[in-house]
Amino acid sequence: MPWLKFLHIVALVIWCGALLYLPALLCQCLSRYRDATFGTAAPSLLRTFFNALATPSALVAIISGTLLFLLHGLLGGWLILKLVAVVGMVISHALLGWLVIRLEAGSERWLAAGALGCALLAGLSMLAVFMLVLTKPLDWSGGLP
């Protein structure tokens, strides 16, 4: 099972990096989109990065984390809190995908603020996951056979 934990950590690092990089890339593409000539489409790098790197790494991280939970029988309040924090990362991921679609559609309103909000939500969620995994508060597994 060490390979599964390794896969989970690698996928999580890639996903977290993508969640922090996507808002910056979105703002960069937004500024280039505003400066472009009439009729220029939004850059495809943003969608490619989201579809080819961020989303697959998110899926691998979630699936491998679920398998680790099921195979090791982990139990504790910290795990429930961690899953809530992971939901924050998933919401940030989904909102970033929505912002990418809005940029491609030509709707620039609130994109920069949305990207900043997504970055803050993702960063706080990642920090919560990191702290919960390291400290494991409310660990109920000590009393289980």
TrEMBL record:
EC supergroup of this enzyme: oxidoreductase
Organism of origin: Billgrantia campisalis
UniProt pathway annotation: Porphyrin-containing compound metabolism; protoporphyrin-IX biosynthesis; protoporphyrin-IX from protoporphyrinogen-IX: step 1/1
Residue ranges crossing the lipid bilayer per the database entry: 6-27, 48-71, 77-101, 110-134
The keyword Iron belongs to this UniProt entry's keyword annotation: yes
Record's protein name: Protoporphyrinogen IX oxidase
UniProt keyword list: Cell membrane, Heme, Iron, Membrane, Metal-binding, Oxidoreductase, Transmembrane, Transmembrane helix
Location relative to the cell: Cell membrane
Principal localisation: membrane
Catalytic activity: protoporphyrinogen IX + 3 A = protoporphyrin IX + 3 AH2
Essential cofactor(s): heme b
EC number assigned by the record: 1.3.99.-
Cofactor binding description: Binds 1 heme b (iron(II)-protoporphyrin IX) group per subunit.
Entry keyword DNA damage: no
Topological relation to the membrane, as annotated: Multi-pass membrane protein
Purpose of the protein: Catalyzes the oxidation of protoporphyrinogen IX to protoporphyrin IX.
Family under the similarity heading: Belongs to the HemJ family.
Coiled coil location: none
